[in-house]
Specification:
It is a single chain. The longest helix has 29 residues. Strands 2, 3, 4, 5, 6, 7 and 9 form a seven-stranded antiparallel beta sheet that branches. The chain has 213 residues and is α+β, with helices and mostly antiparallel strands. The chain has six helices and nine strands. The protein starts with a helix and ends in a 5-residue tail after the last strand. It has a single domain, classed as Cysteine proteinases (Cathepsin B, Chain A, Alpha-Beta Complex).
Amino acid sequence: MWHKTIDLWILLFLLGLLVLGVWYLYWDKNWAAIPVSVQASPLNSNTSFHFPIFPIYLQNDPRWKDDKMGGSEETLGQAGCFVSCVSMALFHYGIDLPPKQLNELLISYDGYTQQGWVKWDTVSEMTDHQIAFKVPNHPHFTAIDAALRADEPILAKILLYNRIYHWVLIVGKVGPDYWVKDPLGEGRTLDRLSQFKSKIYAIRIVKKISGVR
């Protein structure tokens, strides 16, 4: 009887491991960070379009690269990829705030955390609640594709050189890949997301709440 009880517990333990393994594979496939090498959309892999190329704001632009960000001692040149992406996203909706001016406004509105992260609600407040950030619980290509179809740019958090988190702005598709504006790029053209050889670790969809243009 004692041996049968032990065998039963071992069987239950193994079944539990199997269930956890299946659940992990499902979660990793459907909800984890997106490998950019996979097909971006099952609906139309031949799609090719993008929003207007310019402006492409670079965080190391001499006009603002030495400006300090709020909440930290870092400069826009060092850590201004997110601010640069937000500037480009706002321009998409007709709001002309280059990184220098956006950074100054964020500081005046107390729009940075102590870590130097941008407060989403502050950007909305600065734009008279015409712009908002949607933060999906999980980054997934269906959310990105839906946003692009709705003419909404998407901020995407990736990993550079397998060690540094970086933000780019998704502004279009090319087959199974995405077009992005890179604040650390050359500033002359769009880049393909796949060239970074990174997963997408988070996204922020920039939405127009009311008429801006």
